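Bug #77: duplicate submission created two jobs. Keeping one. Sequence:
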Amino acid sequence: MTRVSLVRGDITEQQVDAVVNAANSSLLGGGGVDGAIHRRGGPEILAECRALRASRYGKGLPTGQAVATTAGRLPARWVVHTVGPVWSREEDRSGLLASCYRESLRLAGELGARTVAFPAISTGVYGWPMADGARIAIETVRETETAVEEIRFVLFDEPAYEAFAAQVG
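Kept job's structure:
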């Protein structure tokens, strides 16, 4: 059975097989988690992302999908990049957010990852309300069949940690 754990801290410091990056569709780095992973992981990650853009993802990685690269200098083997949806009051995009978690787990399992660290996807600059983002994240990983043994949510601050802890129970 897959274990779900919560950690308050920096996702770039997690010693896991795969770190999930809340990427933007360009795959070329950005702010928040994405920028931190690219800065700490080094140029190897960006080089592989550029190669992906030049081959399979010329228009960028679609929202809800996932792709893997090396982890570069991170204490992990892979980075699984996924593009979360921007929150909308007018349109229910929760299926896309759930897809980020499901597709990232599927890909991590295919790679042979046993431990995966997730951020709270879409809850930063993409504006997803933290409590709802936590609910979708926890429900989705619990419902997804995977060979991954530990799913670790790495939460940057206390309010995010508390929102996820309320969902874990």
